[in-house]
């Protein structure tokens, strides 16, 4: 699967400094590889809040949880086949 065939989702919240860091890494990698990505606000979903609150930011690749607390750029690239 080519990198651009993947999708990254960041689950975070406003005012979260770790989310800001994750956003920067994901944005850079996604732009370089042409991978679409989206961000979901954890405060908008009771289900997300209950399941992931202690782990934000949480990164998903193709809907599968990939990382939490921090985004490792090399691990993200590897998951995207880059």
From TrEMBL:
Gene3D superfamilies: Glutaredoxin (3.40.30.10). Pfam families: Glrx-like. InterPro entries: Glutaredoxin-like (IPR008554), Glutaredoxin-like_YDR286C (IPR052565), Thioredoxin-like_sf (IPR036249). This is Glutaredoxin.
